[in-house]
Structures are given as structure tokens and as C-alpha cells.
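re: ur question from yesterday

yeah so i grabbed the chain u mentioned. its 225 aa long if i counted rite. heres the sequnce exactly as i have it in my notes:
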Amino acid sequence: MKDKVAIVLAHPDDAELRCYGTICKYLDDGKECVLLIASSGEHGISVKEEQGTNDLLEKELREKETLLAFEAFPMSVRFLHQKDGYMEYGRNLIHAIEKELFDIQPDTIITHYPDLYGVDHQDHAAIGKAVLNCATRISTVKKILLCDPLKTVRSHFVPNYFVDITNYFDRKMKALQCQKSQGGRFYLEESFHKTKGLYYAANLSYEEARNNHYFEAYELYICYE
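ran it thru and got these C-alpha cells back, copy pasting raw so excuse formatting
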């Protein structure tokens, strides 16, 4: 039986930003992956357009961008249709996520680091806390990985689990290019991810960094067999 991985994130671009390479590797390793995206990201107005406008994006637009990024993957992508920007840790969010996780019965969960300092997006913190709550009642879960926030130092994120995504880095960049509605955001650019990937490599081994190896980093919350 294949190991199952549930990736539970808040917005349509979160998986591409934080764990796309890891998902590629897990699929190549024969794991079954399911991506749960809590909202459609309708408040994610492009930096190039956001000044002087309060308009929302069409929900279908951002959903289509992520579906395009994952279209070649043999995996399910599900949207939970929570309200972008207004997610709160509580019964309703926990129930929506728990229902999906009980259906999946994952061995591994990847989700947001529940930043306590308010540096990361408020939806990310709510999702991270809700997933950790749900996981206490799902007996199949043996490993939980918390994704790195965009501003790792200010969030007091301490990575202790690293995945070499060097062979998947170009695919990750192509996936990020699908997020055309988010134009102008520095964290979507290749230089941002090269810098982060090499920073994590250098923390593991200078040779890894010298050889231009790129890593995605997580905080290992729990792991047992």
C-alpha cells in the first residue's frame, strides 16, 4: 500500500512556493499525494494592480492557475472554499479540514507553520493550528511537516527537516510562472528561491551550496513509526 501525503495549505500559490519540489520527490518515490487548498485566494490582488482598488479576483482564476501548475501530476487537488483572508482557528475550519483528512487517512501531513508572532499571513497560522488539532484524532498520521514562512527569521521558524529539490527546481519555477494573477511579487521570482534554497544548503553542508543544490525546509513537528 502506498504511503499517503496530505498537503493542507491556505491559498492557491502556497504549495508552489513552499513544497512543490517536495511533492515532486514524493510522487517519484511512489507516494500518493492529495493537495487541500482552503481558499480560492480571491483577495490576492496583483502588486501591479492593488493600488487604488478594492476589487476581488475571480475565485476560478486562481484555482485554474494552481490546477495548471499541477496538471501533469497524478494527484488530487481539492478546494475547501473558505473565505480568503478571514480564516479563524475554530470549529468551522477544523471541521472542514478534519472531514477531508478522515477521508484521505494520510501517513504524512504537510501544512503551514502556525506563526505565533503575526509575521506570516493570518490564514496560514489558522490553517496550521487547525491541521495540528485535526491530526490528533487521525490515527494514521505518523509525520507532520510545517512549511517555512516567507520571513523565516522574524517568524522564529527553526528548520530541522530538509528535502533536496535540485532535480525539481526548474519545474518549481515553471509552476510559479502559472501564478500570473500575482505578478510583481518578489517571492515568486527565481532569485528569491535560489537564495533560500542555497541558504538552506549552506546550513547543511558548504559542499551542497558550492554544488548549487537547492533545498526546501520544514520544521518536523512529529515523526514516529
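noticed a couple things. The mean pLDDT is 93. also The longest strand covers residues 215-223.
anyway ttyl
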